Amino acid sequence: MRGQSLRLAKWHRNVAAVGAGAAARDWLATPGSLTARLVAHSGSFRVRRLHQKAAVCSMEEAARIGLPRRARVWEREVLLCCDGVPVVFGHTVVPLSATASDWPLFSALGERSLGSTLFYDPLVERGPLEFARLRAGHPLLAQVNAALGGARDANDFHARRCVYRRHQGLLMVTEVFLPAVYNLAAAGTIKIAK
Question: pLDDT tens, 27-38?
Answer without folding.
Answer: 999 888 899 999
